[in-house]
Amino acid sequence: MNGLSSVKADYNRNSNYYLMPNNNVPVRAVKIQEVPQSPDAARTAATAGILQAFALFLHKASEYCGNELMKGQEFTDETSVKKVAENMVKKNKLNVKVDFIDKSNIKNYSKEIQEALGPVARGENAFYTDSYKLAVAPKSKPSLILHELGHAINAHKGKFLKFLQKSRMYVSAVPTALIVLNGLLKRKDDKPNFVERNAGIIGFASFLPTIAEEGLASIRGVKAARETLGKAVNLNPLRRNYLFAWMTYVIAGLGLGVAAKQAVIESKKQ
Predict the structure, then answer these.
(1) What's the pLDDT score for residue 245?
(2) Whole-model pTM?
(3) Which entry of 70, 94, 109, 140 is 20 to 30 Å from 81 by CA?
Protein backbone atom coordinates (compact mmCIF):
# COMPACT_ATOMS: atom_id res chain seq x y z
CA MET A 1 0.00 0.00 0.00
CA ASN A 2 1.38 3.38 -1.03
CA GLY A 3 0.11 6.43 0.78
CA LEU A 4 0.90 9.46 2.84
CA SER A 5 0.99 7.58 6.13
CA SER A 6 2.68 4.43 4.93
CA VAL A 7 6.04 5.33 6.39
CA LYS A 8 5.15 7.46 9.41
CA ALA A 9 7.79 7.07 12.10
CA ASP A 10 6.61 6.89 15.69
CA TYR A 11 9.63 7.92 17.77
CA ASN A 12 7.99 6.84 21.03
CA ARG A 13 7.32 3.23 20.13
CA ASN A 14 9.63 0.43 21.12
CA SER A 15 9.68 -0.86 17.57
CA ASN A 16 11.97 2.06 16.79
CA TYR A 17 15.55 2.29 17.97
CA TYR A 18 15.50 5.85 19.31
CA LEU A 19 13.57 4.94 22.40
CA MET A 20 12.01 6.71 25.30
CA PRO A 21 13.12 5.30 28.66
CA ASN A 22 11.24 2.36 30.12
CA ASN A 23 9.50 3.91 33.12
CA ASN A 24 8.21 0.56 34.35
CA VAL A 25 11.62 -0.73 35.42
CA PRO A 26 12.10 -0.55 39.22
CA VAL A 27 15.10 1.49 40.32
CA ARG A 28 17.00 1.14 43.58
CA ALA A 29 19.73 3.34 45.00
CA VAL A 30 23.26 2.01 44.55
CA LYS A 31 26.71 3.37 45.18
CA ILE A 32 28.33 4.23 41.90
CA GLN A 33 32.08 4.05 41.54
CA GLU A 34 33.46 6.41 38.99
CA VAL A 35 35.23 4.44 36.31
CA PRO A 36 37.26 6.36 33.76
CA GLN A 37 35.76 5.98 30.32
CA SER A 38 37.96 4.89 27.46
CA PRO A 39 38.09 7.27 24.49
CA ASP A 40 36.01 4.78 22.45
CA ALA A 41 33.34 4.53 25.16
CA ALA A 42 33.13 8.30 25.50
CA ARG A 43 32.87 8.68 21.73
CA THR A 44 30.10 6.08 21.59
CA ALA A 45 28.14 7.83 24.34
CA ALA A 46 28.50 11.18 22.58
CA THR A 47 27.35 9.67 19.29
CA ALA A 48 24.31 8.11 20.95
CA GLY A 49 23.35 11.47 22.45
CA ILE A 50 23.68 13.25 19.11
CA LEU A 51 21.59 10.58 17.38
CA GLN A 52 18.87 10.86 20.02
CA ALA A 53 18.71 14.63 19.59
CA PHE A 54 18.62 14.29 15.80
CA ALA A 55 15.82 11.71 16.05
CA LEU A 56 13.71 14.14 18.08
CA PHE A 57 14.39 16.87 15.52
CA LEU A 58 13.27 14.56 12.70
CA HIS A 59 10.06 13.81 14.58
CA LYS A 60 9.24 17.51 14.83
CA ALA A 61 10.21 18.11 11.20
CA SER A 62 7.95 15.28 10.02
CA GLU A 63 5.03 16.67 12.02
CA TYR A 64 5.62 20.12 10.54
CA CYS A 65 5.66 18.83 6.94
CA GLY A 66 2.54 16.74 7.53
CA ASN A 67 0.68 19.69 9.00
CA GLU A 68 1.75 21.98 6.15
CA LEU A 69 0.55 19.41 3.64
CA MET A 70 -2.86 19.04 5.21
CA LYS A 71 -3.52 22.76 5.55
CA GLY A 72 -2.34 23.54 2.02
CA GLN A 73 -4.86 24.95 -0.47
CA GLU A 74 -6.32 22.96 -3.34
CA PHE A 75 -5.06 24.06 -6.75
CA THR A 76 -8.48 23.66 -8.39
CA ASP A 77 -12.00 22.38 -7.77
CA GLU A 78 -13.05 18.75 -7.33
CA THR A 79 -14.63 18.55 -10.80
CA SER A 80 -11.37 19.52 -12.49
CA VAL A 81 -9.40 17.08 -10.33
CA LYS A 82 -11.76 14.29 -11.38
CA LYS A 83 -11.21 15.25 -15.03
CA VAL A 84 -7.44 14.94 -14.58
CA ALA A 85 -7.85 11.61 -12.78
CA GLU A 86 -10.08 10.23 -15.54
CA ASN A 87 -7.50 11.21 -18.16
CA MET A 88 -4.71 9.54 -16.18
CA VAL A 89 -6.69 6.32 -15.95
CA LYS A 90 -7.68 6.39 -19.63
CA LYS A 91 -4.29 7.40 -21.06
CA ASN A 92 -2.39 4.76 -19.05
CA LYS A 93 -5.09 2.07 -19.42
CA LEU A 94 -5.29 1.59 -15.65
CA ASN A 95 -7.64 -0.97 -14.16
CA VAL A 96 -8.11 1.14 -11.02
CA LYS A 97 -11.15 2.32 -9.10
CA VAL A 98 -10.85 5.98 -8.09
CA ASP A 99 -12.84 7.28 -5.14
CA PHE A 100 -13.02 10.27 -2.83
CA ILE A 101 -13.76 9.22 0.72
CA ASP A 102 -15.71 10.79 3.56
CA LYS A 103 -17.84 9.42 6.39
CA SER A 104 -20.85 8.98 4.11
CA ASN A 105 -19.33 6.50 1.66
CA ILE A 106 -16.76 4.64 3.75
CA LYS A 107 -19.48 2.13 4.68
CA ASN A 108 -19.69 1.07 1.02
CA TYR A 109 -16.43 -0.84 1.46
CA SER A 110 -15.75 -4.17 3.12
CA LYS A 111 -14.77 -4.18 6.78
CA GLU A 112 -11.27 -5.43 5.98
CA ILE A 113 -10.42 -2.14 4.27
CA GLN A 114 -12.60 0.26 6.26
CA GLU A 115 -9.90 0.62 8.92
CA ALA A 116 -7.42 1.87 6.31
CA LEU A 117 -10.06 4.20 4.89
CA GLY A 118 -10.77 5.83 8.27
CA PRO A 119 -7.84 8.29 8.12
CA VAL A 120 -8.75 9.05 4.49
CA ALA A 121 -12.31 9.96 5.51
CA ARG A 122 -10.88 12.27 8.19
CA GLY A 123 -8.66 14.01 5.64
CA GLU A 124 -5.44 12.57 7.10
CA ASN A 125 -4.29 10.20 4.36
CA ALA A 126 -4.60 9.03 0.77
CA PHE A 127 -3.36 5.80 -0.75
CA TYR A 128 -3.19 3.42 -3.69
CA THR A 129 -3.33 -0.31 -3.13
CA ASP A 130 -2.38 -2.59 -6.01
CA SER A 131 -4.02 -5.64 -4.42
CA TYR A 132 -7.43 -3.94 -4.42
CA LYS A 133 -6.79 -1.88 -7.58
CA LEU A 134 -8.03 1.11 -5.60
CA ALA A 135 -6.86 4.73 -5.37
CA VAL A 136 -8.50 6.94 -2.75
CA ALA A 137 -8.19 10.49 -1.45
CA PRO A 138 -10.22 12.57 1.02
CA LYS A 139 -13.17 14.47 -0.40
CA SER A 140 -11.80 17.41 1.55
CA LYS A 141 -8.46 17.23 -0.36
CA PRO A 142 -9.19 15.60 -3.75
CA SER A 143 -5.93 16.69 -5.44
CA LEU A 144 -4.04 13.99 -3.52
CA ILE A 145 -5.62 11.44 -5.86
CA LEU A 146 -3.30 12.51 -8.69
CA HIS A 147 -0.27 11.45 -6.65
CA GLU A 148 -1.92 8.10 -5.85
CA LEU A 149 -2.65 7.50 -9.53
CA GLY A 150 1.03 8.24 -10.11
CA HIS A 151 1.70 5.21 -7.91
CA ALA A 152 -0.75 3.17 -9.98
CA ILE A 153 1.11 4.13 -13.15
CA ASN A 154 4.45 3.23 -11.57
CA ALA A 155 3.05 -0.18 -10.62
CA HIS A 156 2.39 -0.95 -14.29
CA LYS A 157 5.46 0.58 -15.94
CA GLY A 158 7.93 -2.28 -15.75
CA LYS A 159 9.83 -4.35 -13.23
CA PHE A 160 12.24 -1.62 -12.12
CA LEU A 161 9.52 0.78 -10.98
CA LYS A 162 7.70 -2.15 -9.41
CA PHE A 163 10.87 -2.94 -7.46
CA LEU A 164 11.13 0.66 -6.25
CA GLN A 165 7.54 0.48 -5.06
CA LYS A 166 7.85 -2.87 -3.31
CA SER A 167 11.17 -2.11 -1.60
CA ARG A 168 9.44 -0.26 1.26
CA MET A 169 8.08 -3.58 2.50
CA TYR A 170 11.55 -4.61 3.66
CA VAL A 171 13.12 -1.43 5.05
CA SER A 172 11.96 -2.08 8.62
CA ALA A 173 14.28 -5.10 8.70
CA VAL A 174 17.37 -3.04 7.83
CA PRO A 175 18.50 -2.20 11.42
CA THR A 176 18.25 -5.85 12.48
CA ALA A 177 20.05 -7.00 9.34
CA LEU A 178 22.89 -4.57 10.04
CA ILE A 179 23.21 -5.83 13.62
CA VAL A 180 23.64 -9.38 12.31
CA LEU A 181 26.04 -8.32 9.56
CA ASN A 182 28.07 -6.23 12.00
CA GLY A 183 28.44 -9.26 14.26
CA LEU A 184 29.57 -11.46 11.39
CA LEU A 185 32.16 -8.92 10.25
CA LYS A 186 33.50 -8.11 13.73
CA ARG A 187 37.19 -7.28 13.68
CA LYS A 188 39.68 -9.02 15.96
CA ASP A 189 41.05 -5.70 17.17
CA ASP A 190 37.48 -4.64 18.06
CA LYS A 191 37.75 -1.50 15.93
CA PRO A 192 34.66 -0.37 13.98
CA ASN A 193 34.21 -2.28 10.74
CA PHE A 194 32.64 -0.95 7.54
CA VAL A 195 29.07 -1.70 8.69
CA GLU A 196 29.48 0.03 12.04
CA ARG A 197 31.11 3.09 10.50
CA ASN A 198 28.48 3.45 7.77
CA ALA A 199 25.30 2.07 9.35
CA GLY A 200 23.52 5.42 9.11
CA ILE A 201 24.37 5.87 5.45
CA ILE A 202 23.36 2.29 4.64
CA GLY A 203 20.05 2.75 6.45
CA PHE A 204 19.24 5.95 4.56
CA ALA A 205 20.37 4.43 1.25
CA SER A 206 17.97 1.52 1.71
CA PHE A 207 15.10 4.03 1.72
CA LEU A 208 16.20 5.87 -1.43
CA PRO A 209 14.09 3.66 -3.75
CA THR A 210 10.97 4.69 -1.82
CA ILE A 211 11.97 8.37 -1.88
CA ALA A 212 12.54 8.18 -5.64
CA GLU A 213 9.27 6.38 -6.34
CA GLU A 214 7.29 8.85 -4.24
CA GLY A 215 8.82 11.77 -6.10
CA LEU A 216 8.04 10.18 -9.46
CA ALA A 217 4.40 9.62 -8.46
CA SER A 218 4.04 13.33 -7.67
CA ILE A 219 5.74 14.36 -10.91
CA ARG A 220 3.27 12.22 -12.84
CA GLY A 221 0.36 13.87 -11.03
CA VAL A 222 1.59 17.43 -11.71
CA LYS A 223 2.35 16.62 -15.35
CA ALA A 224 -1.13 15.14 -15.88
CA ALA A 225 -2.73 18.24 -14.34
CA ARG A 226 -0.81 20.49 -16.75
CA GLU A 227 -1.65 18.32 -19.77
CA THR A 228 -5.35 18.16 -18.91
CA LEU A 229 -6.09 21.65 -17.59
CA GLY A 230 -3.56 23.71 -19.50
CA LYS A 231 -1.45 26.70 -18.49
CA ALA A 232 -4.41 28.72 -17.25
CA VAL A 233 -4.43 26.76 -13.97
CA ASN A 234 -1.90 27.70 -11.30
CA LEU A 235 -0.15 24.49 -10.25
CA ASN A 236 2.02 26.07 -7.54
CA PRO A 237 -0.32 25.02 -4.68
CA LEU A 238 -0.22 21.44 -5.97
CA ARG A 239 3.58 21.47 -6.25
CA ARG A 240 3.82 22.93 -2.75
CA ASN A 241 1.61 20.24 -1.23
CA TYR A 242 3.41 17.45 -3.04
CA LEU A 243 6.79 18.84 -1.94
CA PHE A 244 5.77 18.68 1.73
CA ALA A 245 4.44 15.15 1.17
CA TRP A 246 7.74 14.12 -0.42
CA MET A 247 9.74 15.69 2.41
CA THR A 248 8.02 13.38 4.91
CA TYR A 249 9.61 10.47 3.03
CA VAL A 250 13.04 12.09 2.99
CA ILE A 251 12.70 12.59 6.75
CA ALA A 252 11.59 8.97 7.16
CA GLY A 253 14.72 7.88 5.28
CA LEU A 254 16.90 9.95 7.60
CA GLY A 255 15.04 8.42 10.53
CA LEU A 256 15.83 4.95 9.24
CA GLY A 257 19.49 5.94 9.03
CA VAL A 258 19.39 7.07 12.66
CA ALA A 259 17.63 3.85 13.67
CA ALA A 260 20.23 1.73 11.88
CA LYS A 261 23.14 3.57 13.50
CA GLN A 262 21.62 3.39 16.96
CA ALA A 263 20.82 -0.30 16.53
CA VAL A 264 24.45 -1.10 15.79
CA ILE A 265 25.70 1.06 18.68
CA GLU A 266 23.29 -0.56 21.16
CA SER A 267 24.23 -4.06 19.98
CA LYS A 268 27.86 -3.44 20.92
CA LYS A 269 26.88 -2.71 24.52
CA GLN A 270 25.28 -6.12 24.95
Answers:
(1) 95
(2) 0.82
(3) 109
